[in-house]
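Input.
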Amino acid sequence: MVQRVEYTVLPGVSDEIFLTTLNKLIGHIKRTELNYRDLREWLREDGIWDKERMPIVCDLLDIRFEKKAPVSLGTWAEKFFETDGVEAQQTLLFDRLLRENTLLIKYVLEALDMEGGGRLHSTYELHRMLSSYV
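Output.
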């Protein structure tokens, strides 16, 4: 089973507005015909373009782009676009992460389980653990 080991966040996007930004991004791609350059410029205007991070983020989010082809949404991104409600979107995103790296999710959940001997007490410790795992 192939496991994804490259992860990054949308540059300049806090956790609180992640789903909103993701909806905005996928919705914009769905509603407008963009090429790579148009997408890059639009993301720059919103302050979330990073040349090195965006290919990793887009791959995880099933957004496909190549320099001379139109930007397109894959099956998962289309499903996310059609999903209503924050909880449903969170579930869909979790399922995507689970499919991409089941071992990582298992590792995190075991570390968070205080009754089962989990050892994490802060988000800093979680970040450090994830960084060392990946």
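The chain has a mean pLDDT of 84.
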